[in-house]
Design a protein that fits this description.
Layout lengths: L2 H12 L9 E6 L3 H10 L4 E2 L2 E8 L2 H10 L3 E7 L7 H11 L7 E6 L7 H7 L4 E4 L5 H42 L5 H18 L5 E8 L11 E7 L10 E2 L8 H10 L3 E2 L3 E7 L5 E7 L6 H43 L8 H15 L4 H10 L12 H4 L7 H8 L1 H9 L5 H12 L20 H16 L10 H10 L7 H9 L1 H10 L14
Parallel strand pairs: 1-3, 1-4, 4-5, 5-6
Antiparallel strand pairs: 2-3, 7-8, 7-12, 8-9, 10-11, 11-12
Helix pairs in contact: 3-4, 6-7, 7-9, 10-11, 10-16, 10-19, 11-15, 14-15, 15-16, 16-17
């Protein structure tokens, strides 16, 4: 092989188009087959911005509209005016804009009969980009017209892309702002993660699917060690995994990179995906998984690190907050048991009270969080009994007036125990202790409150407490028959109890009855009934 042949082979290999870039789709609409052939020859081997042209042929206006309906990425339409009718092309141009609402595709009208549709009239009446007589469209002029129009289309699509990025970024920012006021709630951390992912996608990974994963209890199940992998948020085709625990199969494609990121404790840039590794000092491992190639500048890398580090810290703070709340609930429950065990007959009373209160709170429309606080605080409704002497508290017979006054003082005493507390559960406990013996008609104690002046939590616990007291044995009585208990609740509607709470009680009675049986005391005692 001589030098010229060597150079020819090298040039031929160099000029071979790369298949990585999608082509520009150009739709030729004309009822003359020769025009299609000539156009393809004139535009052969044209390359614009590293992308070749793909010529699509249609031979009528109706066929052209069908193509445009199914292909949303047509960049340019070379459209004949006269086809099945004298104005068929003009009808297609109008339908593209008005019926298909496609305002990005560029349209060049071509006509072999300029007098049928005068240029000035067409330009004024139709949203087209150029109007040419076929006789004047030499190869060079067609080349110039097509490339100029493609440049215009590229500019429009760039603007649309940027607009979409800005809109996605705005949505991401709104998510972060909405989440910031409630960042320590379980749902808000997912909302925060969603906002971060949307922002990152808008800024750096537009149209790429992503997952934000938290690994708890060790490294990762993918490495063969104990660990729970949870998706905090995901986009695109992974959205169905939101909130789920994953197993090996769900992330098999990323297994090698995830293992490498965890072992080396840094982010991994693979050929077709990115694994961002983030770990706060005392928190679990956090992974940001981007499905698709990622090429980041140094500032972009810093931005990703900052965003994900903040989410990692927020997640750790959330877990610490939950740990504090769990500790508070444990202490409250244990304190309630100590108080209740001063009475030999109240065994499972606090367990039943907590569950009754939860069911009634939910039936009254409280959120899970609000109902959980009522459930956690309700066991302390009788905390003031800690100050009641044993001789009065455990007296098997009726109270004297003086003993009744002492016993009734437990409501005020319970309030005084917790009124200065700062945790919201203990604040709720103070209110419940103070109000659970108030009555809807104002005849209760210690404040004589009536109606909605009594807190909803107080009204809920008041009914739950009476129901449990009547349903269970005490040192001074047998348990009442269930029907008698229900009749007493009905009789108290609108006098002792809030009518709405009574109605809610009967709506969830099957669940309440299940709790009553599950935590039954399994004992009976007979004495006179003094009331509490």
């Amino acid at each position: 092989m001589d030098q010229n042949e060597d150079n020819w082979l090298e040039d031929d290999l160099t000029d071979t188009p790369q298949p990585t870039m999608p082509p520009w789709n150009v739709l030729v609409v004309d009822d003359e087959p020769d025009i299609h052939q000539v156009t393809k020859l004139a535009l052969a081997n044209i390359d614009f911005l590293g992308r070749p042209l793909n010529i699509i042929s249609s031979y009528s206006g109706a066929e052209a509209l069908d193509v445009l309906r199914t292909n949303k990425d047509i960049a340019l339409v070379l459209l004949d005016v006269v086809m099945e009718s004298e104005n068929a092309g003009l009808g297609v141009a109008r339908a593209i804009r008005e019926d298909l609402h496609n305002h990005t595709v560029r349209i060049i009208l071509r006509t072999g009969q300029p007098g049928v549709a005068p240029e000035r009239q067409v330009i004024e009446s139709y949203d087209i980009n150029d109007y040419k007589a076929k006789t004047e469209l030499t190869r060079d002029k067609l080349f110039t017209a097509v490339l100029g129009t493609l440049r215009s289309y590229n500019d429009i699509m760039t603007i649309e892309h940027q607009r979409s990025m800005l809109e996605a970024n705005r949505r991401g920012l709104l998510k972060v702002i909405e989440a910031s006021s409630t960042i320590f709630r379980q749902q808000s951390i997912r909302q925060f993660a969603q906002g971060v992912l949307e922002q990152l996608q808008a800024l750096l990974f537009f149209e790429q699917e992503a997952l934000y994963v938290v690994i708890q209890g060790g490294l990762t199940a993918l490495t063969g060690q104990d660990g729970e992998i949870k998706v905090m948020y995901a986009t695109g085709g992974y959205q169905h995994l939101c909130g789920q625990d994953l197993d090996n199969g769900d992330l098999e494609r990323f297994k090698s990179s995830i293992d490498q990121a965890i072992q080396q404790e840094h982010s991994i840039y693979a050929q077709d995906h990115f694994i961002g590794f983030f770990k706060s000092p005392h928190g679990p491992v956090n992974l940001l998984i981007i499905d698709g190639p990622v090429a980041l500048s140094h500032p972009d890398t810093s931005l990703v690190e900052l965003f994900c580090r903040n989410v990692s810290i927020a997640y750790e703070n959330l877990m610490l907050s939950h740990e504090i709340e769990d500790t508070q609930r444990t202490i409250i429950y244990q304190l309630s048991e100590v108080i209740e065990h001063r009475s030999p007959d109240t065994g499972n009373h606090i367990r039943r009270m907590a569950e009754y209160s939860w069911l009634l709170a939910k039936a009254m429309g409280l959120t899970d969080e609000e109902a959980s606080i009522v459930r956690a605080a309700s066991p302390l409704h009788d905390a003031g009994k800690v100050a009641i002497p044993d001789a009065v508290l455990n007296k098997p017979g009726p109270f004297t007036p003086e003993e009744r006054n002492i016993m009734d003082g437990h409501a005020e005493m319970g309030y005084l125990l917790f009124k200065e507390a700062r945790p919201r559960t203990l604040k709720m406990a103070a209110m419940i202790a103070h109000e659970h013996h108030e009555k809807w008609n104002g005849q209760g104690y210690p404040q004589g409150l009536s109606g909605e002046a009594i807190s909803l939590a107080g009204r809920i616990v008041a009914l739950a407490d009476v129901y449990d007291a009547l349903s269970q044995a005490r040192c001074y009585k047998k348990p009442w028959p269930q029907e008698d208990v229900l009749n007493a609740i009905r009789a108290g509607r609108g006098t002792q109890f809030d009518p709405d709470v009574v109605d809610a009680f009967f709506r969830v009675l099957p669940q309440i009855d299940e709790v009553r049986l599950r935590f039954a005391e399994n004992r009976e005692q007979e004495t006179d009934h003094p009331g509490t």
